[in-house]
């Protein structure tokens, strides 16, 4: 079939309109993503620690819940076209974690005991953690359209309801970024990982991480402290495996029954304000206070 000039012009115009619609759709997503990230950001607007934050979900109100639900539905709709974007799944994870906070508040206000292992809680917890895991998987791809920032990785790592496989993995990646940028926060990510492994009683990974800290930061002024952590882990591993426990000098101030979880430095990222509850006291699980950001 011979193509006339008018027909070629028609085809080209149609293609240009189709391309423009794709660009416009992409632009809509980018604008939406930037707005969602700004609302979830815990970074001080003025750059000063303790300054004002753009974080939009500090209080538990009907308006905030509506905003979270709307954003969650919008994010879910974008998965069809932008399912390769790690930041989209991080946003879904953050919003899902907020929905879990709302569930916790509602349970307590009904006078019931909040149990994170209950079936109703686990449905919500496993869903938002699956989004975090998807974000981490996509983030590891070199051809991902974008990658997670250190603050995003730290938010995943700070989730006290998250599994060590997810939280420690996120903190390790945050540490890699901190090492590359030399911003002085690498130590904080290591300490966070120690806390994760200590709570999980994962002494092997605890010891592995301490050894990595000793190797990575050989001139650390807190080397004695690290050596103490190492002795603790070695002792607990020996007890677990039924082996002779290495003798520890009496003056060793680090001898303890469990690896110590210490966070003395400034956190990797500023914590966002905790949701202001309408009532109900602080909630703890196995001695760990629930902090959502």
Structure, described:
This protein has helices at residues 5-40, 62-82, 86-109, 119-139, 150-157, 164-181, 186-199, 203-216, 223-240, and strands at residues 284-285, 288-289. It has 2 domains: 54-181 and 270-293, Alpha Horseshoe (Serine Threonine Protein Phosphatase 5, Tetratricopeptide repeat), CATH 1.25.40; 186-265, no CATH class. The chain is built from 9 helices and 2 strands. It is 59% helix and 1% strand. The model is unreliable at 1-26, 250-257, 261-273 and 277-293 (pLDDT under 50). A two-stranded antiparallel ribbon has the order 1-2.
| CATH architectural group of the largest domain | Alpha Horseshoe
The strand line-up of the biggest sheet is 1-2
Give the overall shape. globular
The total beta strand count reads 2
Pattern of helices and strands: HHHHHHHHHEE
Overall average residue pLDDT:
79
Describe the structure concisely for a colleague:
The chain has 293 residues and is an all-alpha fold. It has helices spanning 5-40, 62-82, 86-109, 119-139, 150-157, 164-181, 186-199, 203-216, 223-240, and strands at residues 284-285, 288-289. A hairpin with a 2-residue loop joins strand 1 (284-285) and strand 2.
Topology:
Blueprint lengths: L4 H36 L21 H21 L3 H24 L9 H21 L10 H8 L6 H18 L4 H14 L3 H14 L6 H18 L43 E2 L2 E2 L4
Helix pairs in contact: 1-3, 2-3, 3-4, 5-6, 6-7, 7-8, 8-9
Give me some keywords for this one.
2 domains, mainly alpha, single chain, disordered C terminus, Serine Threonine Protein Phosphatase 5, Tetratricopeptide repeat, 59% helix, 293 residues, two-stranded antiparallel ribbon
């Amino acid at each position: 079939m011979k193509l006339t000039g008018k027909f070629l012009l028609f085809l080209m115009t149609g293609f240009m309109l189709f391309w423009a619609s794709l660009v416009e759709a992409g632009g809509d997503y980018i604008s939406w993503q930037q707005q969602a990230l700004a609302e979830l950001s815990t970074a001080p607007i003025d750059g000063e620690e303790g300054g004002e934050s753009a974080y939009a979900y500090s209080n538990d109100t009907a308006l905030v819940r509506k905003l979270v639900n709307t954003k969650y539905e919008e994010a879910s709709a974008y998965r069809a076209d932008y399912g390769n974007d790690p930041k989209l799944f991080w946003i879904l994870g953050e919003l899902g974690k907020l929905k879990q906070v709302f569930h916790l508040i509602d349970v307590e206000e009904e006078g019931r005991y909040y149990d994170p292992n209950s079936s109703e809680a686990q449905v919500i917890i496993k869903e938002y953690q699956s989004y975090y895991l998807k974000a981490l998987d996509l983030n590891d791809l070199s051809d991902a359209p974008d990658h997670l920032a250190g603050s995003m990785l730290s938010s995943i790592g700070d989730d006290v309801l998250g599994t060590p496989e997810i939280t420690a993995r996120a903190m390790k990646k945050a540490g890699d970024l901190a090492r590359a940028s030399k911003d002085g926060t690498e130590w904080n990510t290591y300490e966070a990982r120690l806390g994760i492994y200590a709570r999980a009683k994962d002494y092997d990974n605890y010891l592995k991480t301490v050894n990595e800290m000793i190797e990575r930061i050989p001139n650390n002024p807190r080397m004695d402290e690290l050596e103490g952590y190492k002795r603790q882990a070695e002792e607990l591993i020996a007890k677990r495996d039924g082996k002779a426990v290495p003798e520890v000098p009496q003056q060793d101030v680090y001898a303890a029954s469990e690896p110590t979880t210490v966070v003395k430095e400034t956190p990797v990222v500023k914590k966002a304000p905790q949701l202001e509850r309408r009532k109900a006291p602080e909630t703890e699980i196995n001695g760990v206070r629930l902090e959502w950001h």
